[in-house]
Amino acid sequence: MSRFLLRWVSAFVMLGLVACGGSGASGNTIDITVTATEFKFEPAVITVASGQAVNFTLKNQGSIDHNWMFQAIGFKITAVPGKSATRSFVAPTAPGTYDITCDVAGHSDAGMTGKLIVK
Q1: Can you tell me the distance from the alpha carbon of 112 to that of 5, in angstroms, rounded to the nearest whole number?
Q2: What's the whole-model pTM score?
Q3: Is 58 inside a domain boundary?
């Protein structure tokens, strides 16, 4: 009886470790979608792990072109009105809070900014 219980508990613990492995730990790829409108990002703040691989989608629900620019690593993605664009990047290994902007003329001045928090 105790062997059966030990095996069951071991299997349950292993299943839990496997299930938690893809929850954003460094080294695993996550999917993030940000919606752009005039003149904001939703969400405006994103948190990722240090060195995290990210499949990033910018969904433009506005009426003009928008981009999401993460200048610290030279990452920029642009989406035309009514469309989405997807690209991948790897988050910096240095923890911190990084600025995000839309560099279309006047957009960041109108409030189209965000933050990428690396933990």
Answers
A1: 56
A2: 0.76
A3: yes
The CATH number of whichever domain residue 104 belongs to comes to 2.60.40.420
Question: What separation in angstroms does the CA of 82 have from each of 26, 77, 96, 101, 114?
Answer: 32, 15, 32, 20, 21
Query: Which token pair is 96?
Result: 């911190």
19 within some domain: no
Written as tens digits, the pLDDT of the chain (119 aa) is 444 434 443 444 333 333 333 344 445 999 999 999 999 999 999 999 999 999 999 999 999 999 999 999 999 999 999 999 999 999 999 999 999 999 999 999 999 999 999 99
CA distances from 5 to 2, 16, 58, 116 (A): 5, 16, 48, 45
